Amino acid sequence: VMHAARQAGLKPGILKTKVDLKNVEHRLLVEIPDIAWTGITLRGTRAVIEVAEKTTVLPEDKSPANIVATKDGLVEELIALVGDAAVRRGDTVRKGQILISGLIVPKAIEPGGNPVPVP
Fold this sequence. Notes:
- The protein is of the alpha+beta class.
- The protein folds into 2 domains: 2-53, no CATH class; 67-105, no CATH class.
- The protein has helices spanning 2-7, 21-31, and strands at 35-43, 46-53, 67-68, 73-74, 84-85, 92-93, 98-101, 107-109, 115-117.
- The strands form 4 sheets. A 3-stranded antiparallel sheet has the order 3-7-5, with no helix packed on it.
- It is rod-shaped.
- It starts with a helix and ends with a strand.
């Protein structure tokens, strides 16, 4: 940061009136790709440079995943908006047991109206 600021014209001993702070801030943003924001303030004979680093947002994992029990217990209510419920109300479950399967198996309707998994 100090090197880039010096290259942009913010050097020790330079007159305040000779420094274009907005230009230095802009140059820092261009020169250092990991910076999201920069601000420079002059306090007496000092220049204070503040920077904020860019944060990397990882893409959301959209792959199917199972919902599992975090501890042993009794199912009081289960609402599966997406996925197939592997347990019902009143079932006892053990830690790590699948409650809702993230793998959705397509189903066909038999002539009698019953859904069956499609291979």
